[in-house]
Specification:
Blueprint (H helix, E strand, L loop, with lengths): L3 E3 L6 E3 L42 H10 L1 H9 L4 E4 L2 E4 L2 H19 L3 H20 L2
Antiparallel strand pairs: 1-2, 3-4
The structure holds zinc ion (ZN).
Length: 137
């Protein structure tokens, strides 16, 4: 005698060894491991912002941008950068990442040369960019 169970997705009766439901395609063996738990919850809950890795939070990125801009650029492009406005968690838009990249490129070009005026300008641009990133709402 074969055993039947009800599909987790649609309730259709399926064989207990079936890995997926032939009717709706819902997986039957991954109870509690659905995509809902794969992503970090960024809204609701007690303090979702605290569960974000420190290097993906804005303050860390701005500090790194001032100390070693290329590392900040790599981190910015390899994922999202989060910051709080009130209780709302926001992410850096692409435009902010592009600005960081341009400033970093400018700084590297300035440091490669020996034009002190240009180096001063690039340094001021870096500080201005960091301030802009840190006060952005
Ligand atoms: Zn089903």
């Amino acid at each position: 005698m074969t055993n039947f169970v009800h599909c987790r997705g649609c309730g259709h009766q399926i064989h207990e060894t079936a890995p997926t439901c032939p009717r709706c395609g819902a997986p039957q063996t991954l109870a509690g491991q659905g995509p809902a738990t794969a992503q970090a919850p960024l809204s609701g809950g007690p303090s979702p912002y605290g569960s974000i890795p420190w290097f993906r939070q804005r303050w860390a990125l701005v500090c790194m941008f001032l100390v070693f801009p290329p590392a900040a650029v790599v981190i910015a492009w390899s994922g999202e950068i989060y910051y709080l406005v009130g209780t709302t968690i926001k992410t850096f838009p692409k435009s902010a990442k592009i600005i960081m990249t341009v400033i970093t490129a400018l700084l590297l070009i300035a440091l490669a040369g020996d034009d002190e005026a240009f180096q001063g300008f690039a340094g001021m641009t870096l500080i201005g960019g960091a301030v802009g990133l840190s006060i952005r709402k």
